[in-house]
């Protein structure tokens, strides 16, 4: 029952990480206009994401526009796109395998517990890989933003701050990593648990000593 609980908890965390990761991937809130000296660097608030940027007016109007050309984007932005999409696809594959291999489901029948455990362990590894793949562009973008913010050579209107999507992205990565680890630990093959054997050995030793006394 404990291993089943670990599987369910791992799947729930991984699904939450996948949903949060999807929102972060689509949200234009990776980088926002910076405040320098307590004043906004530019008159309008600019939000930048992987696929579009949005301009917020003081009147409350927001105008969003997708990037005209993918090839015109910096290499870091293109790599971030690829890694985030790859991570989400790996999560989808891992979710299918994890649900199929979970002990609380009957997708493969009850007579194939070894195969189900193998699928669940593979799903756990895929979730871990997806979490690492998602963590790379988040940390990369955060490093670039902080570096440019403190670089005196970068013009003030070009400085940015960390957007809320980056913080949510860190949370999504952690949920994917922890969920993958729990799913992998809770999917041990049948007959490999050492706890019953250890307990039986202690009982036999206790009975033997009692008979001698």
Automatic annotation (TrEMBL):
PROSITE patterns assigned: CLAUDIN
Listed transmembrane segments: 83-102, 122-146, 166-185
PANTHER family: CLAUDIN
Keywords: Cell junction, Cell membrane, Membrane, Tight junction, Transmembrane, Transmembrane helix
GO CC annotation terms, alphabetical: bicellular tight junction; plasma membrane
Subcellular location per the Swiss-Prot or TrEMBL entry: Cell junction, Tight junction; Cell membrane
Family: Belongs to the claudin family.
UniProt keyword Cell membrane, yes or no: yes
Molecular-function GO terms, alphabetical: structural molecule activity
UniProt main location, coarse: other
Alphabetized Gene3D superfamilies for the sequence: 1.20.140.150
Highest taxon listed in the record's lineage: Eukaryota
Listed InterPro entries: Claudin, Claudin_CS, PMP22/EMP/MP20/Claudin
Membrane topology note: Multi-pass membrane protein
Protein name per Swiss-Prot or TrEMBL: Claudin
Keyword Membrane: yes
Known role: Claudins function as major constituents of the tight junction complexes that regulate the permeability of epithelia.
């Amino acid at each position: 029952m404990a291993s089943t609980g670990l599987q369910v908890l791992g799947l729930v965390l991984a699904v939450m990480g996948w949903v949060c990761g999807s929102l972060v991937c689509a949200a234009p809130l990776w980088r926002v206009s910076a405040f320098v000296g307590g004043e906004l660097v530019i008159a309008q608030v600019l939000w930048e994401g992987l696929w579009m940027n949005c301009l917020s007016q003081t009147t409350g109007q927001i105008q969003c526009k997708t990037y005209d050309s993918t090839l015109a984007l910096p290499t870091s932005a293109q790599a971030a796109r690829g890694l985030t999409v790859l991570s989400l696809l790996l999560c989808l594959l891992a979710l299918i395998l994890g649900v199929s291999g979970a002990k609380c489901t009957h997708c493969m029948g009850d007579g194939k517990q070894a195969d189900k455990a193998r699928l669940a362990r593979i799903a756990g590894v895929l979730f871990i890989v997806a979490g690492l793949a998602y963590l790379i562009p988040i940390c990369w973008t955060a490093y670039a933003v902080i570096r440019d913010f403190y670089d005196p050579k970068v013009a003030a209107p070009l400085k940015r701050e960390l957007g809320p999507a980056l913080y949510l992205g860190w949370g999504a990565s952690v949920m994917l990593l922890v969920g993958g680890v729990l799913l992998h630990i809770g999917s041990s093959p049948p007959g490999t648990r050492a706890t019953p054997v250890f307990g039986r050995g202690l009982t036999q030793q206790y009975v033997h000593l009692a008979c001698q006394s």
